[in-house]
Amino acid sequence: MGTEITRHTIAELTQLPMVVVDDRLRALAEDGRIKRLVRGVYAVVKQYPPTRPMSKTVLADGFVKIEIGDEVLTLTPKEDRVLGGLMAGSAFVAASTAHEARLADALARLQLPVGTQL
Question: How far apart (Å, rounded) are the C-alpha atoms in residues 55 and 81?
């Protein structure tokens, strides 16, 4: 997140009426471009370009081609192993997040109305 700013500061700097500032802040928050931190205080959300297509190909000679958009990396088998180790943390986080979502869904389905006898 970037610098925090208040709706009052925006109104003062832009000389726009508060109703216009509030409307635009609401629209930016709905678009995910800013985040409301507390009432009347906002921060810009980091925007990233669209995700590029990615692929990994293991060649018969052991070399590995990693393609990301128009860029191609050619890795030796050792470089591939090292990169795999570096990426393991990201893979673990992704797997854990998916697992937690499935658990939360299962728990929600298991919720019984109050007073239900087992």
Answer: 16
Quote the tokens at residue 19.
């109703």
- At which residue do the structure tokens 């709706």 appear? 7
User: What's the one-letter identity of residue 109?
Assistant: R
> How far is Cα 69 from Cα 51, in angstroms, rounded to an integer?
9
> Could you tell me the two tokens for 54?
């990615």
The answer on pLDDT for 112 being more than 70 is: no
Neighbouring-strand partners of residue 35: 43
For the chain, where are the E strands, in sequence order?
4-6, 34-38, 41-44, 54-58, 64-68, 71-75
> Alpha carbon of 36 to those of 19, 21, 22, 29, 76: distances in Å?
17, 14, 12, 7, 46
pLDDT of residue 117: 61
Give the pLDDT confidence of 18-36 residue by residue, as tens digits: 999 999 999 999 999 999 9
46-73 pLDDT per residue, tens:
989 999 999 999 999 999 999 999 999 9
